[in-house]
Amino acid sequence: MSAPTEDRFTRLAALRPARKRETSVAPAPESDSLTELLGAAVGRNRYGEHLVVRRWHSTPEPCEPTAHALGLLVPQHLPGTKTDPTSQKAAATTAAHERLADPTQWLFLDTETTGLAGGTGTYAFLVGLAWWDAGGFQVEQFFMRDYGEEHSLLLEVSRRLAERRVLVTFNGKSFDWPLLETRYLMTRAIKPQPPVTHLDLLHPARLLWRLRLGSVRLTDLERHVLDCERLGWHRRDDIDTTLIPQVYFDYLRGGPTQPLAAVFRHNQMDLRGLAALAGRILGLLAPPDAAVKPENDAFELYGLSRLLRLRGEDSRARVLYERALGAGLPSALDRAARRELALLAKRKRDYQRANSLWEDLLPGSLSRGGAASSAPTGDSIGRSHLMEGLEVTVEACEQLAIYYEHQARQPRRAAELARQALVQLRKALRTGRIEPARCRKLQARLEHRLARLARKSRRPLFEPALPAS
């Protein structure tokens, strides 16, 4: 039998119904070996047994988030969010606010599974939970020694979820929690305890650090952002995550128990890294930017600016955009930052600053700006930033044309800028750097503006249409 076929039979065996273990039966010798190796205990409940490993760590220390920082991270739970006081949800919303504001009510979760694809055939054979306790970090891991112990494991996880109702994960909204919900559904016996609030730190981490790191895997964030060696751990001998399912399958087939120790350690470090990441992100979001020091790099400043802008914190975002530009961004990001800052300045009617930024984005202007020498790879910056460069130039011409038409009352200058935008569109279309449909839309808008300006100045300012694509 080939190895892939054997693995398929192993997965099919996982679909058999769970059997209640007889707690009076003595554990097998290999189970004793695993218990001693991990320093584990045998947990028991009405569904049978499972292994439990508990560790207390002095780091990371509990964070003390401000209500404002939490509101930026989870906008729907910002204190003061409008809710109908007569609705049945009002009391639940208030309770959610209170739990979110109390980090002792947070439950960190990370799973190790039999596959990364999800679905009904994927099991969470190791569920790691953690919370802040006694000034440190308490980790509790539940492990099923065979598929028949899943009911017992899931019951204990449900009990912990009932005790602490704020769930904190890394990609947990897309993977860990849906997987556990599926497993609870498959048991047909145990009801899950859904969190009242779910903090998934993957999404703010992407906004803050993906442009600098390219990848926002938790291990990369620990190395480059969190400095976890200072906190007391490192990943130098960490197991490759792609090998973890096979380690478990080998164990089920009677293989050695020693490789499982690396899986447990990996899960513990993921939980500790998750807690440290929560403290780091909330520290950055807390006003008045106390955690944003001069040594913060331009990429992080730019990422934080974008997050604040998306949350409506325009004033703070403008300050940090300026700092990011002053710190020196690669040319593609420099253009993106200037565009976003110009839009914020225009919104506040700061036309002088907005126009200065739009002028910087005109053809040839940015040769004196942008720290290209510090640029990461194209994949790190993102293809969208690189491909939007010419559209940003067109937008700059159009925004300046709007200003000169409606604010400065200089229709000739506005028409000149609109024609310049059409020239840039023609160039983009010829080089294939813009979709024809998008080009036609922008062209129609600019031609309409030129026609209006022609009527205002009583002179023919219209340019010939772009060649057909």
Sketch the major β-sheet.
7 strands, mixed
Q: Write the H/E string, N to C.
A: HHEEHHEEEHEHEHHHHHHHHHHHHHH
Q: How many extended strands?
A: 7
Strand content is 5-15%
Uncertain residue segments: 14-27, 366-387
Distance between the termini: 58 Å
Based on helices, strands and strand pairing, what is the structural class? Answer: alpha/beta
Fraction in helix: 40-55%
Task: Spell out the CATH superfamily of the largest domain.
Answer: Ribonuclease H-like superfamily/Ribonuclease H
| Biggest sheet strand line-up | 1-2-5-4-3-6-7
As for the CATH topology of the largest domain, it is Nucleotidyltransferase, domain 5
| Whole-number mean pLDDT | 84
CATH class of the largest domain: Alpha Beta
Q: What coarse outline follows from CA principal-axis ratios?
A: elongated
**Tally of domains:** 2
Q: Helical region count?
A: 20
For the record, the CATH architecture of the largest domain stands as 2-Layer Sandwich
What does the radius of gyration come to? 28 Å
How would you sum up this structure, described in words?
With 469 residues, the protein is an alpha/beta fold. The chain has two domains: 10-284, Ribonuclease H-like superfamily/Ribonuclease H (Nucleotidyltransferase, domain 5), CATH 3.30.420; 298-457, Serine Threonine Protein Phosphatase 5, Tetratricopeptide repeat (Alpha Horseshoe). It has helices at 3-13, 29-38, 67-73, 89-100, 150-163, 172-187, 202-213, 218-226, 228-231, 244-252, 258-285, 298-310, 314-327, 331-347, 351-360, 378-381, 383-387, 389-406, 411-431, 436-457, and strands spanning 41-45, 48-57, 106-113, 124-133, 136-143, 166-169, 197-200. The relative contact order is 0.08. Residues 14-27 and 366-387 have low confidence and may be disordered.
